[in-house]
Amino acid sequence: MAKILYFSTLAERVGETMEEIKLPPSVEDLRGLLKLLRMRGEEWPVYLVDDRIQATVNKNFVELDAKISDRDEIGLMLTRR
Fold it and tell me: What are the residues whose beta carbons fall under 8 Å from the beta carbon of 5, sequence distance 6 or more?
């Protein structure tokens, strides 16, 4: 299962600091993960806008086209853009 960490303002807005989810085969990169999370509705699509998110995979900053898997730790935070 992929471990997703939500930081700072993003954690406050979506009401989560961490969760573990099984990634469906269709989610291969961070953009796909953001799309999946936005489908939850409510606050998720408001704050998980691609150009407002900074991400890490296994504690390394990456671009949103970075590949991900169920073995990864993914950190998401809002940027000030």
Answer: 17, 18, 73, 74, 75, 76
CATH of the domain at 70: 3.10.20.30
Q: Whole-model pTM?
A: 0.93
Residue 68: per-residue pLDDT: 98
Structural domains counted in the chain: 1
Weakly modelled stretches of the chain, pLDDT under 50 = none
> Which secondary-structure segment (H or E) carries 12?
helix 8-14
Residues 38, 48: contact at Cβ < 8 Å? yes
Amino acid making up residue 5: L
Structural domain of 29: 2-78
